[in-house]
Structure formats: structure tokens, C-alpha cells
């Protein structure tokens, strides 16, 4: 991701700020990483769950993880809401993938829709990305609505992917084109 951004992006919307995770965000990140309801529709190998100690996650996030992805905290009025991620950058095709996850108390408030929109604007306007993809579990209807609201197109439904579970995970593949 260092090829895409030389420094960690800071993204501001009407209600939200997407920014670098800091030590002071450890409580919210720990709550998120230990929520079974949050992770029931997500891969098992996400960086925030790589280390048991959330402080270790934060210490390693922008050196170890920055090569493969950029993880930003999502905040409303300085309160931690969740994480947004940019990953899978392909320089030759001007393509990147995005994902997000939020604390349960922020579900249903438009935070995910606004976050995805902010990621799309940042990637297209500041990084020259022309193709953005997202993968969602077929069962996760809420996130399907979020990507649809942000003008992603469903390109394939129910394709088996390796999300770290014992069996392949049926996933929907979404694409946003400039």
C-alpha cells in the first residue's frame, strides 16, 4: 500500500473522520475485535485479530500491515465507530479493494454507507483508482445494501472464497467503476 499512499490518509466527511489508529483508540478497537456479532460475516484473518494484545496490534499496524493494506479508524465526534480498510492494490489495473466493520451500537445509522462513500471518493480523487472491489458474505444483507447505495454492481453471487473457515465461504463480488 506504500505504492498507493506514501502516508496514512486522513479522510473527513460531514459526520465522520477516517484516520490512523492511535494508542488512545485501544479500548474501542478491543471491543470491536472481541465482538462475535461483528465478525460473524467477516474473514477470520483480519489484522486486528492477529495479536491477542490490542496494543500490539496498534504498534504493528502501520509498519507490518501497511505493506498489504491500510486500516483506518472510523470516528464520529472523536468516538470510535469501527474500521475501514483498503487492500488488494493492483497498480497495473488501477484497482483496489475495500472493507469495513463497525461496533454494533453504530449499526443502522448510515455510518457504513458514509464510510464506503468516503473510501470511494478518496481512492478515485486522490489515488487515481478506477476500479474498486468489495467482497461480502451472501448472508450479510445489510452490507449488500451499503455497497448498492454507493453504486457498486454485483458481478457474481455465491462464489466460494477462502475466508479462513473450515469450509469455503459463499461470497458476493461487487465492483465500482470510474
UniProtKB/TrEMBL annotation:
<keyword id="KW-0808">Transferase</keyword>
<protein>
    <submittedName>
        <fullName>Ribosomal-protein-alanine N-acetyltransferase</fullName>
    </submittedName>
</protein>
<dbReference type="InterPro" id="IPR000182">
    <property type="entry name" value="GNAT_dom"/>
</dbReference>
<dbReference type="GO" id="GO:0016747">
    <property type="term" value="F:acyltransferase activity, transferring groups other than amino-acyl groups"/>
</dbReference>
<dbReference type="InterPro" id="IPR051531">
    <property type="entry name" value="N-acetyltransferase"/>
</dbReference>
<dbReference type="InterPro" id="IPR016181">
    <property type="entry name" value="Acyl_CoA_acyltransferase"/>
</dbReference>
<dbReference type="Pfam" id="PF13302">
    <property type="entry name" value="Acetyltransf_3"/>
</dbReference>
<feature type="domain" description="N-acetyltransferase">
    <location>
        <begin position="16"/>
        <end position="178"/>
    </location>
</feature>
Amino acid at each position: 500500500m506504500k505504492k498507493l499512499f506514501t502516508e496514512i490518509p486522513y479522510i473527513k466527511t460531514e459526520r465522520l473522520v477516517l484516520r490512523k489508529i492511535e494508542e488512545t483508540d485501544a479500548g474501542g478497537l478491543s471491543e470491536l475485535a472481541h465482538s462475535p456479532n461483528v465478525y460473524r460475516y467477516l474473514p477470520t484473518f483480519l489484522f486486528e485479530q492477529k495479536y491477542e494484545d490490542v496494543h500490539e496490534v496498534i504498534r504493528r499496524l502501520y509498519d507490518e500491515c501497511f505493506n498489504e493494506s491500510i486500516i483506518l479508524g472510523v470516528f464520529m465526534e472523536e468516538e470510535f465507530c469501527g474500521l475501514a480498510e483498503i487492500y488488494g492494490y493492483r497498480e497495473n489495473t488501477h484497482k483496489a479493494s475495500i472493507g469495513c466493520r463497525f461496533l454494533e451500537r453504530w449499526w443502522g445509522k448510515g455510518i457504513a454507507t458514509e464510510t464506503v462513500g468516503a473510501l470511494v471518493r478518496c481512492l478515485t480523487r486522490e489515488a487515481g483508482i478506477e476500479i474498486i472491489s468489495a467482497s461480502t458474505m451472501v448472508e450479510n444483507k445489510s452490507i449488500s445494501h451499503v455497497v448498492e447505495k454507493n453504486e457498486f454492481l454485483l458481478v457474481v453471487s455465491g462464489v466460494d472464497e477462502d475466508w479462513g473457515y473450515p469450509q469455503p465461504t459463499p461470497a458476493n463480488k461487487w465492483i465500482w467503476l470510474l
